Every structure is written in structure tokens, then in C-alpha cells.
Amino acid sequence: MEEISNKKRVLNKKITPIVIFMAIVFGTYAYLYVIHDRVEEKEAQNHDYDTSTSEIEASNPSTNTTNTNNKTVATEELSVPSNWKTYKNNDYGYEVKYPNNLPLASLDRDNDKIYVSNISIGDNITVRVLSKFNLPNCNDKTLTGQVKCFYTILDQNPNSISQQTFGANTFIYADTQNKDLPAGKNKDIMAFIEKGDYIYQLEILSPDSTQEAIFKKILSVFNL
């Protein structure tokens, strides 16, 4: 019996280190497995975030904006080709940029007593300056009121008059059908902005989509 007991003790002494070693190996493996699993989960979350962010940016390109003086303006609206020309009028305090392939001309203003300055850009864009509050029979001193009086003088009824911002400039933007133009080519867009004693009116007649896009870029970089 004593001999059997001794054999058991010897056997236990041999088995115990093996058990301890196996426990260490198993514990280390379990620890590494958990760490690896967490790393993969974290990487998957980061990948999902990057993918969703890219999809949002791709589907919403207008979110690329520039903040200037607390005004958020679309970068695309401010971007004009570097070869555009610049016309600066020191008498009435404005500056306008325009495509270099469009001729600029000073127009006769004697027939239009309400204008103090009148230039053309290309065939269908004009930039005019009016003396503020110089419109006959107009008691509304706001810019919107002055614009409505202006259309009354022209005997035209705009389809819409709204306030719209292009670049850093906010205009009263009016869209009408010019009765003096042939049907189908009578779209007439005018944009009005004021400073000091003057109202600045930019107009485009019968624009196609490309010309209207150019006109909006001109509005976005119009400088007072």
C-alpha cells in the first residue's frame, strides 16, 4: 500500500507542472484571441465610418464651403477663371469681372433718365447704376420697394422677386418675361443690390443655361 501511495505522489508531481503549463498556454491563447477580436472590430468600425463619410461627401458636393466673415458661401460660386477681365468704375464705386471673350461697351444713357451709368457685357448682359430714391412716384424706400417701382415704370410684372445670395453678395433677384422680346426668347433676369446713394442693376436677356451660369458667377464676384 505504501508503495502504491509513493507512486501516486510521484505521478502527481509529474502531472502538476504539465497542468500548470497547459493552463498558462490556454490562458495566453484566450487573451490573444480576445485582443485580436477587439482590434478587428475596431478596424471594421473605422472602415465603416470612412466609407459612410466618403459616400456623404460624394452625394453632397455642395458641403464644400468656405467661411468668410461669418458668411458661409459656396466655393463653386466664388470660382471664376483667372483670365476673366475686370472693369472698375471709380465714379460709382463698383467693380465687375467678366469673361475675356465678351466685349465691354459704354451705352448711351440719355434716353434713360433714371440711369446714371450704363455698360454692356457681350450681347445680352448690362450693368446699370440708378440714383437711389430717384424713381418717380415711388414712396417705398426699401430696396424691394424700389425694385417694384422700377418694374411698374417698365410696365412689367415679374414672375418672381426674391432675395438670393451669390458669393458674398445678397441681391433682390427678379425673373420676368420681357414683353418686348419674342416668345420663347423673352426671359429677363435682373439682380439689384444697393450701396450708399446708388442701386446697382445687373441684367441678362434671353440666356441659355450656360449664359445664366456665367451671369450668376458675375454676381458672385461683383464688388462694391
Give the topology:
Blueprint: H1 2-59, E1 65-68, E2 71-74, H2 75-78, E3 85-89, E4 94-98, E5 104-106, E6 115-121, E7 125-131, H3 143-154, E8 160-166, E9 169-177, E10 187-195, E11 198-205, H4 209-220
Antiparallel strand pairs: 1-2, 3-4, 5-6, 6-7, 7-11, 8-9, 9-10, 10-11
Description:
It is a single chain. With 224 residues, this protein is α+β, with helices and mostly antiparallel strands. It has 2 domains: 2-59; 80-220, Mog1/PsbP, alpha/beta/alpha sandwich (Protein Transport Mog1p, Chain A, 3-Layer(aba) Sandwich), CATH 3.40.1000. It contains 4 helices and 11 strands, in the order αββαβββββαββββα.
User: Count of DSSP helices?
Assistant: 4
CATH topology of the largest domain: Protein Transport Mog1p, Chain A
- The number of domains: 2
- Low-confidence segments: 44-77
Radius of gyration: 37 Å
Kindly report the spatial arrangement of strands forming the biggest sheet.
Answer: 5-6-7-11-10-9-8
What general form does the structure show? elongated
Our estimate of the beta-strand percent is 25-35%
Report a brief summary of the structure:
The chain has helices at 2-59, 75-78, 143-154, 209-220; strands spanning 65-68, 71-74, 85-89, 94-98, 104-106, 115-121, 125-131, 160-166, 169-177, 187-195, 198-205. It has 224 residues and is α+β, with helices and mostly antiparallel strands.
